[in-house]
Design goal:
Elements lengths: L1 E5 L6 H10 L3 E6 L14 E4 L15 E4 L6 H6 L1 H22 L3 E7 L18 E2 L10 H15 L6 E7 L1 E3 L10 H11 L2 E5 L5 E6 H13 L2 H4 L2 E5 L2 E4 H12 L9 E5 L9 E2 L2 H7 L7 H11 L15 H21 L1
Parallel strand pairs: 1-2, 1-4, 2-3, 4-5, 5-7, 6-14, 7-11, 8-10, 9-13
Antiparallel strand pairs: 10-12
Helix pairs in contact: 1-6, 3-4, 5-8, 8-10
């Protein structure tokens, strides 16, 4: 299959494209190329430099399936520019779905988010375990990011019919190594901070629960759905996770792993105040396991070990590169474009 991957040069997309090639498919990437083409080096892909807000139906010529990953991907970027977040995550998804239906593209996977399960109620008492959410749990998302994801998810699923088989994946917080590395995801952030600062901060004691999943497993799930019988995926929602963890558990796993490398690094754990937005939720992956036969391949501990083997521990100054942080890179690019416009207006 020729598979159009929106956001294919991003953190998940760069891994998914390699998985698609390994499975015998031909990925076609639509991406704004915020992080350049390096994440896709060595991967046989076609690249279209484009923005999902201006989705061109011509990009679907000869396409058999779409994996829709593009959009702003966390709370900080969504809150930084709520208008762009809505245009990309919500309206952009509407345009892509409409174009797919008009072109007769039948298979469609959508990267939704487990954050839509988060609510004021779930975050009320951090010392208690929140309820276990499954795909039938009522949701009341809060925050620009999760609200836009729920809107887009509804758009995708409402479009399901005899000729269009979309599936929405409520992906847990992703971790692990990617050619387009990120250090603004909780496990990856802890690994970076443990190496650079040798100190990890537990906000509010770190009692909050999160569903976690390795980036390789997220990519594998999208490939599974693209190859699954249509009746298994049409109009379905699936939670995607390896396991639920408390934040303090993750910190301990990272600290313990650093103590075992050569030379060992001792990491201190320190209490810190709660942030304004506190996420605290758990979810089940029973449906994904039963319906698609998904079995997670990497635990958090295994992924931490893998990152420590791949990251340049002798060049820790590189970890501060803004390319590893979505909000920092986004603001730098915006400042750069503003300067270009000022310069053009003067000369």
């Amino acid at each position: 299959m020729r598979v159009l991957v929106t956001g294919g040069a991003g953190y998940i997309g760069a891994v998914l494209c390699r998985r698609l090639v390994e499975a015998g498919h031909r990925p076609v990437v639509v991406d704004r190329m915020f992080w350049g083409r390096k994440p896709l080096e060595g991967c046989e892909v076609e690249i279209i430099s484009g923005d999902v807000r201006d989705f061109d139906a011509a990009w679907l010529e000869g396409i058999d399936a779409v994996a829709h990953l593009a959009g702003l991907s966390n709370d900080p970027t969504a809150e930084y520019n709520t208008a762009a977040n809505w245009e990309m995550n919500a309206i952009g998804t509407e345009r892509i779905v409409a174009a797919c239906k008009a072109k007769g593209v039948e298979r469609f996977t959508f990267a939704s988010s487990a954050s839509i399960y988060d609510s004021e109620l779930s975050s009320h008492e951090l010392t208690r375990s929140p309820v276990m959410c499954d795909e039938t749990t009522a949701v009341a998302p809060r925050g620009a990011y999760s609200i836009s994801k729920k809107y887009a998810e509804d758009v995708v699923l409402r479009a399901a019919d005899a000729n269009f088989a979309p599936v929405a994946f409520r992906q847990g917080t992703v971790y692990g190594y990617s050619p387009r590395m990120r250090f603004d995801l909780v496990v990856n952030t802890f690994v970076k901070d443990a190496i650079v600062r040798r100190r990890l901060f537990l906000h509010g004691g770190g009692w909050m629960w999160r569903p976690l999943v390795d980036v390789e497993d997220v990519a594998a799930v999208h490939v599974m759905a693209l190859e699954a019988p249509l009746e298994r995926i049409r109009g379905q929602i699936f939670n995607v996770l390896e396991e639920n963890y408390q934040i303090r558990q993750l910190a301990m796993l990272v600290a313990g792993s650093l103590s075992l490398i050569d030379p060992p690094i001792r990491v201190e754990l320190e209490e810190a105040p709660l942030p304004k937005l506190v996420r605290n939720y758990r979810m089940s992956n029973a449906k994904l396991s039963t319906e698609l036969g998904f079995t997670p391949s990497r635990t958090v501990l295994e992924s931490i070990t893998g990152m420590l083997q791949k990251l340049p521990l002798d060049r820790i100054d590189d970890f501060g590169d803004p390319r590893y942080y979505n909000i920092r890179w986004m603001t730098l690019l915006e400042e750069f474009h503003l300067e270009q416009r000022r310069y053009a207006s003067i000369y």
